[in-house]
Design brief:
The chain is α+β, with helices and mostly antiparallel strands. The chain is built from eight helices and 15 strands. It binds N-(5'-phosphopyridoxyl)-D-alanine (PDD).
Amino acid sequence: MSRIAYVNGRYVPLRDASVNVEDRGYQFADGVYEVCEIRDGRIVDMPRHLARLKRSLGELRIAAPMAPAALEAIIREVIRRNRITYGIVYLQITRGVARRDHAFPTTPVKPAVVVTARSLNFARSEDNAANGIAVVTTPENRWARVDIKSVSLLPNVLAKQAARERGAYEAWFVDRDGVVTEGASSNAWIVTRDGRVVTRPADHSILSGITRTVLFNVLEALQLKLEERPFTLDDVRNAAEAFVTSATQIVMPVVRVDDGQVGDGKVGPVARRLREEFHRFAHFS
Ligand code: PDD
């Protein structure tokens, strides 16, 4: 079955899906995106993703291309046409098509909208989570507004590639003070030896992950202690556990960071439990 994409008003086979070469997303990475998990054919936490999308658009002064309900209908249709039960849906909005000029187009252009979806292998995700992943660290070299979910991801691309070349699955950005900001495509967490679950506050230096936000509710319900504070690589070395969160990974245990094992080098009970419980607290629609 050929995959179907939504591109600027039309549902087209993915192999025929294309955008204008003067799309500002293509030329300047002038656009934003969202990724939602699809589970049992339903969308996980869509209202929160759409709210964050609205915020990202607002921060970049890109006009909303349509009402949220219309966007939601397109997302559902793409999932339906691709018959996804477990996987992801990807939504991208760019400022639109205009003759190349760094400043915004002087006459308003329509934002360009693309939606794709694809299946993921459930068994493989669970297998990864059962074994835990390795992470490498890399100097933080991104711009100061990574709270905006922009498609401008070159440092993230290079970090992820560095991870792959070193046999790891994710890269953590570390700032000049030795503080971990976040992963190339996930938020970073540790669990201290006395059971406190630590993640960095969501200021402008990380993306405020939807999975991260929902996990706060899980922690509260399980009566686990949350500490929203910066943590360093030294804290990671002393931690009992570590994990990352994202719409695609949910809660993914981390068992190695660079050359050191985390805790006893095995998937820990807290990360395992949080992963198991997560979807009881997520919104499905
Ligand atoms: N990435 N931080 C970064 C830099 C991310 O790219 C992501 C998500 C997150 C986690 O956000 P959320 O929990 O809302 O998925 C944090 C998506 C999945 C991606 O780029 O594929």
